[in-house]
Amino acid sequence: MTEQVIFILISIFTLVTAWVVVTNRNLFHAALALMASFLGVAGIYVLLDAGFLAAAQLLVYIGAISILIIFAIMLTRRMMQTHETPFNSQPVLSGITAVGVFAVIAFVLYRVQGLQTQWPWLKGGASGFSDPVPVDPPIILNSVAKLGEAFVSPDAYVLPFELASILLLAALIGSILIAWPKPEDEK
After folding, report:
1. In a domain, 98, yes or no
2. Residue 80 sits in which domain range?
3. Predicted confidence (pLDDT) per residue in 128-153, tens digit
4. Could you give the CA distance from residue 103 to residue 109 in angstroms, rounded to a whole number?
């Protein structure tokens, strides 16, 4: 019962801060709310016992991407002063997209057989699915270590891992060069 209450509170926090991101006119405040929303998602990962995903969410999204966005906003002076409308100019298309995404998620939830016992409102479901096979605990316990070894192993993912780091470094340098004040901007 307490886990459900904590989940509901974290979900409400995440949704409220995501709403602030979308509707806030001040870009800097929206970026701060985005960091708070990412923190709420990390909290949901913790509740799901996905420690690696929670740590990755904290390190990658809050620690790197959000800080990069805030630096880009602060280095670009004209964006700090812009007050544009927070509302979408295409409400019909965005509404159709939201309903479509909801329909896909509802269909997937309906098809998952394991959820029928947990959520009785999902009656019927997919009769073609077999019972889920439990995963052995040693596989789960060693998965993070195996993933780390795969990232640095020359036979696995070291090249894509290094290329992604070079791409992120190039994006950081490019954003600094774009935001760098030019002499004609200071007049």
Report:
1. no
2. 1-87
3. 445 555 667 776 677 777 777 877 88
4. 10
The secondary element (H helix, E strand) that includes residue 123 is none
Tell whether 135 is covered by a domain: no
Instruction: Answer whether residue 152 is part of any domain.
Output: no
Eight-class DSSP state of 156: T
- Whole-angstrom Cα distance, residue 134 to residue 118? 16
- First-last CA distance in the chain: 62
Q: What is the pTM of this model?
A: 0.52
Does 49 reside within a domain? yes
* Number of domain units in the chain: 1
Distance between CA 57 and CA 122 in Å, rounded? 31
| pLDDT of amino acid 162 | 86
Question: In whole angstroms, what is the distance from residue 149 CA to residue 142 CA?
Answer: 11
Q: CA dist 100 to 28, 103, 122, 124, Å?
A: 31, 5, 19, 22
Name which of 124, 100, 103, 102 is nearest 112 in CA terms.
124
Cα Dmax for the chain: 71
User: What is the per-residue pLDDT across 12-47, written as a single tens digit (0 to 9) for each?
Assistant: 999 999 999 999 888 888 889 999 999 999 999 988
Q: Are 14 and 37 in contact (CB under 8 A)?
A: yes
8 Å CB contact between 154 and 50: no
- We report the CATH number of the domain holding residue 80 as 1.20.120.1200
